[in-house]
Amino acid sequence: MSKNESMYKISKFAAPEFIFGIDSIDYVKRYIKNFSLTHPMVVTDSGLLSASWAKNIFKQLEGIDIRYSIYDKVSENPKDYEVEEISKVIINCNCDSIIAIGGGSVIDAAKAGGIMCANPGSIRDYEGIDKIVHPMPPIICVPTTCGSSADVSQFAIITNTDERYKMAIVSKSLLPDISIIDPKTLTTLPKELLIATSLDALTHAFESYVSLGSSPITDMFALKAIRLIFETLPKVAKDPKNINYLEDLMLASLMAGMAFSNASLGMVHAIAHSMGGYKDIRHGTCNAILLDSVIDFNYVYAAYRYDKISESLGYVLEDLNEIDRKKILIESIMNLKNKIGFNITLKDLQIKESEIDIIAKHAVNDPCMLTNPVMPTFEEVKEFIARNI
Amino acid sequence: MSKNESMYKISKFAAPEFIFGIDSIDYVKRYIKNFSLTHPMVVTDSGLLSASWAKNIFKQLEGIDIRYSIYDKVSENPKDYEVEEISKVIINCNCDSIIAIGGGSVIDAAKAGGIMCANPGSIRDYEGIDKIVHPMPPIICVPTTCGSSADVSQFAIITNTDERYKMAIVSKSLLPDISIIDPKTLTTLPKELLIATSLDALTHAFESYVSLGSSPITDMFALKAIRLIFETLPKVAKDPKNINYLEDLMLASLMAGMAFSNASLGMVHAIAHSMGGYKDIRHGTCNAILLDSVIDFNYVYAAYRYDKISESLGYVLEDLNEIDRKKILIESIMNLKNKIGFNITLKDLQIKESEIDIIAKHAVNDPCMLTNPVMPTFEEVKEFIARNI
Ligand SMILES: [Mn+2]
Ligand SMILES: [Mn+2]
């Protein structure tokens, strides 16, 4: 390290251009033209093709005579070999761009696939931060969940099938050229998924707020996202088709995305990636399960940050000591969970005693752990999982 | 307009990558390398060359053996002919990029100059929205004021010398590749300018909040910027060298910038551009002078939006009728102005009766007027100016 350190915090910020609003998918054709694209590869998954808003996109492409190919076999947690296949298909079909239509998995796969069209070797070589050299072809994202917001983040999460954990690839060039964000795409998302992905967004907001990489701007996004999700989830649980609630969830997800994309994440994701990777469990579910116990673990190291979250949720902490403050925050999450009927716990995942080692090992090496309020030791993570399963 | 309109609001958002923080200008060399630039044109103005942070930039360039040229004759309100000259100098010196170091004027000039390297004709041809075709060479911005935030906006304001008014050129391709935002650059800004530009930022925040082009995200930026400026300006007026206050002003300006860049502006700027253009008056001063009387004019058309601004400043409006609510907001601005010793009024600008017509004519045609809460008629603008001079 050079001659003398000073302690002012410097923060970077990057976000893609996006267009937001109900019926904004009517703009797909507009950007195809603006970017003068001729042959996009539509990366999606089969369950979405029957939705009315999806048909509407294909009609737009045909409406301006654009030939397109479709790749629709992306799995729940995209694997490294799927990424190879995608990049191959793109090159073989001579596509000059990508349209990614789907949730986190689809978009991560599409982004990783795009990257591997322009970078050599395999996607594993680019695990970590800022390792990508060449940009990918133009890519348009159409998110259909309100959780992972991979459409505005510099992250791609791909499962490494050999060692069965999720790799985090972080780089600015994973940002799409544009993201078209239309709440209407959530009207066909089953309630259960709607909830799981919203809890994912909530975790992004929590983790980026207490992360060591936070900045005033990501703080703003994170807090706003937390408030919106706390207000809207209970209502949406009662009324899952209400377009106004879906708009708020989408907005919350967008902001949580821009927050974690620039502030990074923490221990919840570090464990969720390794546990999710190892056991092939839905990502949002892992997060929702781990969130309150990670807060329990992290609290003492960033009390005053977690306190700010509680205060902006309207709790008055003035005369409470630290233990009560922690309790309040954790309970507010548990109330939220059972108000919306989410009551899976770590026990329900049947994690066997023998799997804890390997899960903990991957967790401590996950890049997300670097910005956790504290660097837990290998032992602590093991014991942390053991205490909760 | 096509067959049937629906009323959901769609909003676009674009922002450049930026890096923010005290001492962040130490990263200039890093981005020169990342973008692998070899010969930047440094566009600035002479008063800045003697500052310690400025020397530090040049040393960084020399430290990595980068040749650079300097153009430092940008005037307070850059004129169309200066833009021609800049684009010429860039081409003649074979520069492959631009480093813009300065306030709004410098950056607008540099951006417009860059644009004219890649687009034919004169800058006048690109007045209005979305008229630019080709992107400009890579450009790095280093803002040195906390007002216009041209470094993160899709605007360039160039004075049309024939008809003596300011043109607004609006396009996504006016976004720089990166903006390096360091509050330390404000330590050499004289107090008077510091205040004028902060009031400019305040106006950006006000106008983008009540603009017809506002969105939840720009709302957030605008409100936060307004609070920060109301809190910090009075303190900075007493202590103009305090680095912590300068940081807050810079942050406020950044956010106000991203707000107006995506929501556009309104009547204050429409008149400030034409009045400022016609009389060659400092931009921030015009805005600061016009802000409260434009609120007086606009209030009835967007009462509940202005009310939200008052409420977030901590005023309780519950039992007040509309006249008092307006009064409260206007007074809070006037208090701010005389707390910081800003007491110039329109009268001090000696605008002659005979100049009103021409000023009003340009104002109603300014693109900023399109998103004003109400479209004033030519008559109303004349009468508005007459009433206040
Ligand atoms: Mn996540
Ligand atoms: Mn301005």
TrEMBL record, chains A, B:
UniProt keyword Signal, yes or no: no
Keyword NAD: yes
Molecular function terms, GO-annotated: alcohol dehydrogenase (NAD+) activity; metal ion binding
Keyword list, A-Z: NAD, Oxidoreductase
Pfam families in the record: ADH_Fe_C, Fe-ADH
Domain Fe-containing alcohol dehydrogenase-like C-terminal: 195-387
Ranges for domain Alcohol dehydrogenase iron-type/glycerol dehydrogenase GldA: 17-183
UniProt superkingdom: Bacteria
Signal peptide start-end: none
Matching InterPro entries: ADH_Fe/GldA, ADH_Fe_C, ADH_Fe_CS, Alcohol_dehydrogenase_Fe
Cofactor(s) in the UniProt record: Fe cation
CDD domains registered for this protein in UniProt: Fe-ADH-like
SUPFAM superfamilies to which the protein is assigned, alphabetical: Dehydroquinate synthase-like
UniProt family annotation: Belongs to the iron-containing alcohol dehydrogenase family.
PANTHER family assigned to the protein according to its UniProt record, in alphabetical order: ALCOHOL DEHYDROGENASE (PTHR11496), ALCOHOL DEHYDROGENASE 4 (PTHR11496:SF102)
Name of the protein described by the UniProt record: Alcohol dehydrogenase, class IV
Source organism of the structure: Thermodesulfobium acidiphilum
